[in-house]
Amino acid sequence: MSNPRLSIIPAGAVTDRSLEPRDLQTLCLLGRHIDRAGWCTRSQVRMAGELGCGRATLQRSLDRLYEAGWVEKRRRDVWRPEDSTPSSSYAYRVKLDRDDFDLKSLAREADDDLDESHAENAEVPEIGEGVPAGGQGCPPTGTGAHACAGTGAHTYAGTKNDPLERPLRTIERDAGARAKDRKDRFKGEFRERWPTSAVDDRQRTDYAADALSAEEEKAALDGVKPFLEELKRQGRKTIPSGWRYLEDKRWTLLKQGERSAEGGSSRTAFDVGGEEHRALEVLYAMAKARLFVNAGKVIYRGSITPQLLAFGGVSDRASWHWIADRQQIASWQTFIAKHVFGVRSPLLERRGEEMGFYAPAPWPPRKDGTWSEVEASQAGGDE
């Protein structure tokens, strides 16, 4: 083999218990991609791909190696040529010698290796001189390196040797790192699929994505294409923001509409333009929310009651009441929280020195569909 590719790492890093197995992989990988001055300027994305992990995981390994003193780093834009593109990323170089590393301990370890009692230095009789074919004193059978061969090897829980168990916080940290990598992959894939991601509120999209479980993330990605196709079929010219799609979990509304069309559930879908639609449209307009329409049906998670149908007979917004009384506001807020689903804009707004909102009547309708105060705005203006 000509020109073998080698990577040398500092001996002390091998037994540094502040490091994790992934950190040693990272340390070796840095040595594979150094320039003549010993610096590694390879993209972190490419290195993460070589190790089969996420970029965030690789970055945490680099941070631990730097904090432990086994690598040094330098901003690439400090020393790159003036005509090159500026960069805020870092280059890394492995430090083969560390000032505080105890060289005497290495000397003692070397002396220990000469001890005849050491397993590697003990004389082994030839086959047939009483050495058993298997058992104590025999090397492990099978191919490949043994996970616990040699002195001082770390053995983790699940082996038959005395385990040097990983601390619980390390296990939790690894689980958190895997979850973060999964979230990062989901956010990246969602932004690639959602048409308005370039102009959406990125922070709000991240918040909505963080609130989803792993199952909901998959369902959200699978629902993007059917959702957009349904909007196109309805002739909708606008597409909601990505964060609204995630916060409202609109892929579930789409499935709910399909079940309603098949007769799988009752009173969840109503004809556009019908009595239920008119009533819900008034209620949602007052609550500053939006109804979901699918395949010519209005999708509603609750049940249509006489109390809700009362909104279908109110007049236009010009004759609505300005609600500023605290008790009336609290009563309306309780009613809206019970009957309006999905994301809503803030209900209260400022008018002069007062905070309030507009509603068809001072109080919500009764359960029988009547209003607490009969006025023209509640009966369509003809009473």
Describe this structure in words.
This is Helix-turn-helix domain-containing protein. Residues 111-139, 359-383 are annotated as: Disordered. With 383 residues, the chain is mainly alpha-helical. It has 14 helices and 8 strands. It has helices at 11-14, 21-32, 44-51, 55-68, 76-79, 103-113, 168-193, 202-210, 214-233, 242-248, 250-261, 275-286, 306-309, 326-339; strands at 71-75, 90-94, 269-271, 292-294, 297-299, 321-323, 349-351, 354-359. The strands form 3 sheets. Strands 3-5-4 form a 3-stranded antiparallel β-sheet, with helices on one face. Strand 7 and strand 8 (354-359) form a beta hairpin. The longest helix is centred in the middle third of the chain and has 26 residues, at 168-193.
Count of strand segments:
8
Q: Which stretches are poorly predicted, pLDDT < 50 over at least 5 residues? A: 113-165, 260-267, 374-383
Q: N- to C-terminal separation?
A: 98 Å
> Strand-and-helix sequence, N→C?
HHHHEHEHHHHHHEHEEHEHEE
The CATH class assignment of the domain at 11-94 is: Mainly Alpha
**Kindly state the mean pLDDT as a whole number?**
74
Q: From the helix content, strand content and strand pairing, which structural class follows?
A: mainly alpha
Strand order of the largest sheet: 3-5-4
Radius of gyration: 34 Å
Which percent range describes the beta-strand content? 5-15%
CATH architecture field of the domain at 11-94: Orthogonal Bundle
In CATH terms, the superfamily of the domain at 11-94 is: Winged helix-like DNA-binding domain superfamily/Winged helix DNA-binding domain
Helix content: 40-55%
Tally the helices: what do you get? 14
